[in-house]
Amino acid sequence: MKYLYTVIVAAVMLFAFTANGQDTSKEKKKENEEIIIGLSIDDLRLERWQKDRDLFVAQAKKLGAKVIVQSANGEDAKQMSQTENLLSQGVDILVIIPHSSDAMASAVDSANKQGVPVIAYDRIITNSNVNAYISFDNIRVGEMQAEYLVNKVPQGNYFLIGGSPTDNNAKLFRKGQMNILQPLIDKGDIKVVGDQWAKDWQANEAMSIMENGLTSTKNNVDAVVASNDSTAGGAIQALASQGMDGDVVVSGQDADLAGLQRIAEGKQAMTVYKPVKTLATEAAKLADRLARGKDIEANGKTNNGKIDVPSILLDPISVDQTNIKETVIKDGFQEEAKIYKNSK
Ligand code: GAL
């Protein structure tokens, strides 16, 4: 009898732990029961994440789920305590946009211990048993930025402004940028005259990086590889104070309203539009399935240093003055009247 009991306990334990060592023992909700999703956002100070939040919450509601949203405003300790708080509120799943791709591994560990699955939203969480990752092809984003600039300025002085050093995406963007730039650097066509990373992707960080860059190069900059629209905005402010905005080509990313307005005005060359509606919609569906213990469909795997994480990676789109209408406006991502507010 005792032997039988031991066998049953062992079998139940085996069932509760998957191959990744994740505890899946938290009781999963039935089809007619409401699931609760904890959405932990790095930083709502940036325009991009406000859109993600709104679209994600709307889709989750459609699926009959409730979402509890928290924003850490760029602080690891705060994000950690917020995820603990979400777990203690009994969420069925955590969806995390990590401020630090490394630090949030502890949040995944905590969730795993309680049998709560975790989705890494837009940014991977490294060295953890995260259940799924949904994002864009981020290396391609970096390639698009650099491709655009080298088409406009095939030779000249390039200044690189990377994103937050704690964000794994920032490294992927740089990898993509270098895929395009390195051969031209080796050929001697392009010279990198500055290479800095903007803390927390903040515009004011990028502005002071650019101000110093202009001083040290005596304004000898032809192109700025800015990794997103907030950093592009900071760089363009610094260029403007030297009367150089519009003359220096600057890349961006996110199709932020402010970024598109600068493109319309000819101050920023391009942005990379990532259809966030698809990202948020797919993420909400993924959350619903994982929370109910159902299988998920991924189109790839991403090694996060510990495991191959089932991944959904979507395609980014390069946007400049010529295709604003058929991309962001057509998709209802931004409004035409607002984009052209200052330029028509
Ligand atoms: C990245 C994200 C970008 C940009 C940036 C700043 O991780 O992929 O779209 O928004 O963060 O928040």
Considering DSSP H and I runs of 4 or more, what fraction of the residues is helical? 40-55%
Oligomeric composition of the shown chains: single chain
Placed side by side, the strands forming the largest sheet appear as 2-1-3-4-5-12-11
- Based on CA atoms alone, the radius of gyration comes out at 22 Å
Explain this structure to me?
Residues 1-23 have low confidence and may be disordered. The protein is elongated, with a radius of gyration of 22 Å. The protein has helices at 2-16, 47-62, 76-88, 105-113, 138-152, 168-187, 203-216, 229-240, 257-264, 276-291, 325-329, 336-339, and strands at 36-41, 66-71, 93-97, 118-121, 132-136, 156-162, 190-197, 223-226, 249-250, 271-273, 300-303, 308-314, 317-319. It has twelve helices and 13 strands. It is an alpha/beta fold and 344 residues long. Helix 2 links the parallel strand 1 (36-41) and strand 2 (66-71). The strands form three sheets. A seven-stranded mixed β-sheet has the order 2-1-3-4-5-12-11, sandwiched between helices. Strands 7-6-8-9 form a four-stranded parallel β-sheet, sandwiched between helices. Strands 10-13 form a two-stranded antiparallel sheet. The structure holds beta-D-galactopyranose (GAL). Beta-D-galactopyranose is lined by residues 46, 48, 122-123, 163, 167, 169, 201, 228, 253-254. The site of beta-D-galactopyranose (GAL) has 11 residues, from loops.
Summarize the structure.
The chain has 344 residues and is of the alpha/beta class. It contains 12 helices and 13 strands. The site of beta-D-galactopyranose has 11 residues, from loops.
